[in-house]
Specification:
single chain; alpha+beta; HIT family, subunit A; 5-stranded antiparallel sheet; 3 helices; HIT-like protein; Histidine_triad_HIT; HIT-like; catalytic activity; HIT-like_sf
Length: 136
């Protein structure tokens, strides 16, 4: 986990383009947007990955994303959250992207996603289910 002092999000908690703020969460405009209206929602608690974030620090995040989505007026959008470099996380602080997807933009604006279905058998899915269910 990166230290709080070297985390860009932790240093901009009082930054510009602040949209919403609660005791545990901050929402602000992304400074490297992939679409007009691209925002970030972060917990104020410094945690590198979602699994590092205590439950009591998560309560305001989804409501903030819903408020931003509603206020934006965009009918289509993505909510994205990445964990770790192989999963495309660039900043080691939990963050959620609100990314508008204009209906007429095609792949020219917003998030472009591939979905490489793995074609797992029902037996393979059952094995994964059993392993995860046991650990939950």
């Amino acid at each position: 986990m990166s230290s709080q002092s070297s985390c860009i999000f932790c240093t901009i908690v009082k930054g510009i383009f602040k949209l919403l703020e609660t005791e545990t969460m901050l929402a602000f405009m992304d400074i490297g947007p992939i679409a007009r209206g691209h925002c970030l929602v972060i917990p104020k608690y410094h945690a590198a990955k979602l699994s590092d974030l205590p439950d009591h620090q998560m309560g305001d995040i989804l409501p903030a994303l819903a408020k931003i989505a509603s206020a934006s007026g965009n009918e289509n959008y993505n909510i994205l959250q990445n964990n770790g470099r192989p999963a495309h996380q660039e900043v080691d602080h939990v963050h959620f992207h609100y990314i508008p997807k204009p209906a007429d933009a095609g792949d020219k604006a917003g998030l472009v996603v591939g979905w490489p279905i793995q074609g797992l058998s029902q037996e393979e899915i059952r094995t994964s289910y059993d392993e995860l269910k046991r650990k939950l």
